[in-house]
Structure formats: C-alpha cells, structure tokens
UniProtKB/TrEMBL annotation:
Keywords: Disulfide bond, Lectin, Secreted, Signal
InterPro entries linked: C-type_lectin-like, C-type_lectin-like/link_sf, C-type_lectin_CS, CLec_Tetranectin-domain, CTDL_fold
Pfam families the record matches: Lectin_C
Localization (cell): Secreted
Organism (species): Chelydra serpentina (Snapping turtle)
Domain C-type lectin: 19-133
SMART domains associated with the record: CLECT
Protein name according to UniProt: C-type lectin domain-containing protein
Signal peptide extent: 1-19
Coarse class of the protein's main subcellular location: secreted
Amino acid sequence: MYCASVFSLVWIFINGNSAGEKTFQANGSEGDFETSKATCSQAGGLLASPRNSAENTAIHQIVVRHNKKAFIGINDIQTEGTFKYLSGEAIRYSNWAAGEPNNGGGTEDCVEIYPDGRWNDRSCNEKRLIICEF
C-alpha cells in the first residue's frame, strides 16, 4: 500500500498543478463534457472549475503541456447566458476570450479553456482534454 501511495503522489507531482487547496490533473485522455464529468467523478474528483486567476493559471499550464483545449466545469445548459458551476452556483470569476461567450450556432452550452488561458463557449459534444480537480 505504501508503494501505491508514493506512486500516486509522484504521479500528481509530475502531472498535476496545484493552486490553493486544489490539485488539477490530466492523463492526456479526452472526452465530451458528460464523459469528462463522469471520468473525474469516478476518480474521486470534479471536472476542473477555476474560481480565481491562480486556479485558471494552473489549469492553463496543463492545457499548454498537453497542447489541447479542455472543458472546464462551467456551463449554461439550464439557462442560456447564465453560466454556472456544476454545483449550480453562479460563476464569480471568468476569463472569456474577446467576443465570448457568443453561443455560436445556438448550441454552445459548455466552456473550454484555450491554450492562452482564455475561455470559449463550445458545444458539449466536442471532445476535449479531461482535467480533474481534487
């Protein structure tokens, strides 16, 4: 058991980033929004949901490392234009790219983070890097 714990800590240190009390991790796998949420839940975490600049930066660094856009745990599925965390709480921090959110095509209810750290609303059916928070 000790070896597994040490291995887990090493894996987190190598592949994860921390901000405050949270650790963010990705193993390179991708999924749509629902798959991403389920994957993080099965691992004992949540889909990464930045609540401040430091957390956004930690997630951004993982996106850059993998060179892939990633979904974050924010959406406006319930009410168009009202973005909330998975808990249902309204977002207080945001980092939208210029002109976003724009609900392009009327089907963009989920939020992805670009390699520059900015956010874009995107169709929930796209496949993106899965980043979980613990």
